[in-house]
Design brief:
Strand content: 15-25%
Radius of gyration: 22 Å
Order of helices and strands: HEEEH
Low-confidence stretches: none
Strand order of the largest sheet: 1-2-3
Mean pLDDT: 82
Length: 114
């Protein structure tokens, strides 16, 4: 169909590839909203669960750490668990993105702006 059009045929291929990429990106975004990671601190006394997109979805605190004198320690453990979950979420998101870009023939380590 595009054989005699030269570069127009290449443009059609590029447009189709871009549409496929857009579709795969939308699918990946939906999948990442369903994937979860769990960060923890205090040897598992505080656990924070987040989606691969970084949205905090759950917080589990062992009741043994509740002591009025240790308020600051508990707050630090909660923050540490949340940060751990966020870091794991970011790593999972990068892992999923690299799976997607791998099929595009991009050089390894090339990060797209999203």
């Amino acid at each position: 169909m595009f054989k005699g059009l030269g570069q127009m045929g290449d443009m059609a291929k590029m447009m189709k590839a871009a549409q496929e990429m857009q579709s795969k990106m939308a699918e990946m975004q939906e999948d990442m909203a369903k994937m979860t990671v769990t960060g923890e601190s205090g040897a598992g006394l505080v656990k924070a669960t987040a989606t691969a997109k970084g949205e905090l979805t759950a917080l589990d605190i062992d009741p043994s750490i509740f002591n009025g004198d240790d308020k600051e320690v508990v707050e630090d453990l909660i923050l540490a668990a949340i940060k751990d979950a966020q870091q794991k979420a970011q790593a999972k998101a990068q892992e999923e993105m690299s799976k997607l870009t791998e099929g595009l023939g991009l050089p390894p380590g090339m990060n797209l702006p999203f």
